Amino acid sequence: MLIVMDKDATAGQIAAVVAKIEALGFAAQPIPGGERTAIGILRNPRPVDPALFLDMSGVTQAIPVSRPYKLVSREMKREDSILQLPGLEVGRGRFVIMAGPCAVESEAQALTIARAVQAGGARVFRGGAYKPRTSPYSYQGLGKAGLKILKKVREETGLLIITEAVDAESLKLVVECADIIQIGARNMQNFALLRRAGQSGKPVLLKRGMYATMEEWLMAAEYIMAEGNPQVILCERGVRGIGEHSRYLLDLSTVPVVRRESHLPIVVDPSHAAGRRDLVPPLARAAVAAGCDGLLIEVHHEPEKAMSDGPQSLYPEQFTALMQDIKTLRPGNWP
Ligand code: PEP
Ligand code: MN
């Protein structure tokens, strides 16, 4: 349930509502909003009777929240969320490009690609130091040494850093060096990791699991937000489809549906969906046309030598050309 306060409600009236929610044994979560204060009721095992609040002074509405996800839902928060990163805002009409290699391989590789994507218009550099690989024999990433390289990229270029945490141990280290923590598709329902990412207080990009329904994905985001971290970006990266023509099936219907269901920003990763570079530009353009808040794209200057995901990595020139197309498709509001 969402308790909506009068726009002139006093701090005392708001505190009284919070106290009543807590006295009932539930959790109260104030929801910041432009023109009104609202207070969400969480952790109530059964529906709450609106009459308990409607006669309190300063309360204008008590709205039942029908969705299983609460903090994530647009029912709880009407305006689009906006994430504040150092020098960069994400969401509510801003458009962000995050690009870089699948994995950090060396300082020279990371810096070369970082400079190329920055010239093309990226504001965030992606690169995995911890790689969740299907095969235990595949390249697993440089670990701590990779994070050190990412720090260097940040210092040298000013690009913000997004990198994946695969478990509690890597999360601790990632939090120290990244601006955005990536939770990968394979960990979307690793609830212990989601909780820790929520406790970190850092912005989190949550990829959709390749077998997850939209509701499961939004519930995973709820785990992060329920720990008190409102800084969540959703990332559609495709689900298991049929056929071998693409690696996954990019489900662009989630862009407008997430926008309707949630106030959180949604970005699209066409690279992992495609699995091959010729499909990345058309899927990226389609994602932009569908209304996403940004893109996460793999780029490598020598994809034939890449330690992971070379076949889907764009050459820097292809990335630059794609950025031009996207600026035409979606002019204005680029950070
Ligand atoms: C990645 O971004 O490199 C990655 C492993 O992606 P996903 O979790 O979507 O497979
Ligand atoms: Mn990859």
Rounded to an integer in angstroms, the radius of gyration calculated over CA atoms is 21 Å
> In this structure, how is the largest beta sheet organized?
8 strands, parallel, barrel
The helix-strand sequence is EHEEHEEEEHEHEHEHEHEHEHHEH
**Overall average pLDDT:** 96
Describe it for me?
The protein is 35% helix and 18% strand. It contains 11 helices and 14 strands. It has helices at residues 11-23, 51-54, 107-120, 144-157, 168-177, 191-200, 214-226, 254-261, 270-274, 280-290, 316-329, and strands spanning 2-5, 27-31, 38-42, 59-63, 83-85, 88-90, 96-100, 124-126, 160-164, 180-183, 204-207, 232-236, 266-268, 294-298. Helix 5 (168-177) runs parallel beside helix 6 and helix 6 (191-200) packs across helix 7. The chain starts with a strand and ends in a 6-residue tail after the last helix. The model has no long low-confidence stretch (mean pLDDT 96). Bound molecules: phosphoenolpyruvate and manganese (II) ion. Residues 102, 272, 298, 308-309 line the site of manganese (II) ion.
List the helices and strands and how they pair.
Blueprint: E1 2-5, H1 11-23, E2 27-31, E3 38-42, H2 51-54, E4 59-63, E5 83-85, E6 88-90, E7 96-100, H3 107-120, E8 124-126, H4 144-157, E9 160-164, H5 168-177, E10 180-183, H6 191-200, E11 204-207, H7 214-226, E12 232-236, H8 254-261, E13 266-268, H9 270-274, H10 280-290, E14 294-298, H11 316-329
Parallel strand pairs: 7-8, 7-14, 8-9, 9-10, 10-11, 11-12, 12-13, 13-14
Antiparallel strand pairs: 1-3, 1-4, 2-3, 5-6
Helix pairs in contact: 3-4, 3-11, 5-6, 6-7, 10-11
Bound molecules: phosphoenolpyruvate and manganese (II) ion.
